[in-house]
Amino acid sequence: MTKKYAAAVDQGTTSTRFMIFDHKGQVVGLHQKEHEQIYPKPGWVEHDPMEIWERTQEVIAGALEKSGVKAEEIAAVGVTNQRETTVVWEKATGKPIHNAIVWQDTRTDKICNELAKDGGQDRFRPKVGLPLATYFSGPKIRWILENVPGAREKAEKGEILFGNIDTWVIWNLTGGPNGGVHVTDVTNASRTMLMNLETLDWDEEILGIMGVPRAMLPEIRPSSQVYGKAVGALAGIPVAGDLGDQQAALFGQACYDTGEAKNTYGTGCFMLLNTGTKPVQSKNGLLTTLGYKIGDQPAVYALEGSIAITGALVQWLRDNLGMISKSAEVEDLAKTVEDNGGIYFVPAFSGLFAPYWRSDARGVIVGLTRYINKGHIARAALEATAYQTREVLDAMNADSGVDLKALKVDGGMVFNETLMQFQSDILGVPVIRPKVAETTSLGAAYAAGLAVGFWSNFDELRANWGKDKEWDPKMDADTRAKLYKGWKKAVTRTFDWVE
Fold this sequence. Notes:
499 residues; alpha+beta; seven-stranded mixed sheet; six-stranded mixed sheet; 23 strands; globular
């Protein structure tokens, strides 16, 4: 049977979906399901890995059924995932020894502070491109090994395995306890704080300091390569692509040239800039990370600005405050007012990520008066996403020495026209939304398709990219400067809250 499609499992922070694409990169099948967010203590965030695997199987079956696509028509399947979220499980049974510790979780702050006593927050940065922060997987693995009875002994013997969610999904997809492949790709490995950026292998010295046995770690592979064959509903189909979600979006947005950038608006916000085949160390609070590695070609690096809370702030207005009943309603509420009424909302719910890296920060709304109503709060919540993006872009311009000409955007929030216009206004550059906004899944499907020859080169993928809408700046420079100055002042009010 001829192969007509490439597909992707997209395992995100709040939901899992399976997407099927044709050769032109158009969506032909999609099924999506949410999973539970578990909050055992303030600052702790967990997922049930078994629930995630169940959802993965359900969305694969659902997308095939709804689209009428037969599994054997799919050339290859890729995986993309919430990065840094840490799973440790028994090799023999496939049972997790603890819930997955999610990227937003801050329980490892003591471990990070302890490690920073010798050499500071940037102790490992020259090797791994990352500051010591609760965000990354390495300290989360250590926490599990120290807090689950018997875990360390089992880890030394290779009886338990670690993976970010990509590794967990691929292991289960290719057979689990019955011959599942234990691999990760360079992009996900670069988020553990354990991989050396130059060698693209686990760093023995850091493993020793962090107390993570090598025996539990997956093999690091390129982002596009056949890792194994699927079992179950996709039986026999090559599993051939693996990219962390933000790198997958960079890949799906066809940012294959040095200096091209994208911003993904999801639970958090993530801007990546392709810096070519050499890692660029950041002096301005950004992360040096892997962009992708295709087969035997040289690895491509990126600078990344990570913002913890953007879309999650809209969910918070919905779920915690009950200001809206659906996330999409935030735009109408924000449009009931002309401006933010002089307030700023800094959503440092789990500290501040780029470019500050302050785990002592907590969220604030500043500038409140009797005049303020819920419309102003909704507007300030949207504006927070745009201001945080501006901070990251300023840092990128400073690090790379390249001024961005336009910003390609994707993710759920890009259909919020009010936000996109304000984003363009506060950046002073055009903001461009592509025809396929779900570029994360698309990027993983591209990586898988390239590995098996379903697509032959980057030119074919570039040809699939099309512009849907562009927003140009309408704000004058004085207003832009004044608003941004207010934001910077508001951010300082979040510092030093946690003793």
